[in-house]
Amino acid sequence: MELRRHQSVEWRIAVHGASGAGKSTLARAVADQLGVPMLELDSLYHQANWTPLEESEFRRRVGDFVAQPVWVCDGNYRAVRDLVWERAQLIILLDPPRRRVMARLIRRTLKRVVLRQAMWNGNRESWRNLFSRDPERNILLWSWRTHQSHRETTPSDATLYAPRATFVRVQNRREGRSLIDSLTTR
After folding, report:
1. pTM for the whole structure
2. For the structural domain made of 12-184, what CATH number should be given?
3. What pLDDT, on the 0 to 100 scale, is given for residue 10?
4. Which of 53, 60, 95, 116 is buried most deeply by CB count within 10 Å?
């Protein structure tokens, strides 16, 4: 995977994709490999009891994070996308096939519900949300509904709103590993 070279070896990287595509996993691997800070936008946005962080405060905190010289940020929040993309040098769309995303998301969600695993700020996924018909509450419905739109709109939006950034689509783990290798062997 060939990436356009930047003047410095420092990276500012935004990772996008459907829920369950593996954004946080890839972002964490990239941040660890490069030794740079990482921000998972969900961890900031979803406060205790799934209360959303007020938008002005969300934007302030994300703005502070992306003001750093190097970082990796994962998430799809339009409320802060302008802040992230304005500084990003590399935008990664994690885009595995829908069947793979859904299989991964079902396994992950069931594990979290059954084991009562705490996520960000003490939040837990619940059986109630898993069986809800509201995509705002049911992560499976949300991912199903938004998967195609990420695939279709992220590339064109990146070209339009982040023309200086390099855009890369990653469709599987092999491509993800190749991307990480290309970032660290420059």
Report:
1. 0.90
2. 3.40.50.300
3. 74
4. 95
Contact between 12 and 66 (Cβ < 8 Å)? yes
- The domain locations on the chain are 12-184
For tokens 């962080």, name the residue. 53
Which residues lie below 8 Å from residue 164, measured CB to CB, with a gap of 6+?
Answer: 89
**With the C-alpha atoms ordered 79, 40, 148, 136, is the resulting torsion angle positive or negative?**
negative
Q: Tell me, what amino acid is at 122? A: G
pLDDT in tens, 155-176: 999 999 999 999 999 999 999 9
Backbone angles phi, psi at 9, to 5 degrees: -95, 5
Q: What angle do CA 55, 14, 159 make, to 5 degrees?
A: 100
* Matching residue, tokens 């700020």: 121
Q: Which portions of the chain are predicted below pLDDT 70? A: 1-9, 185-186
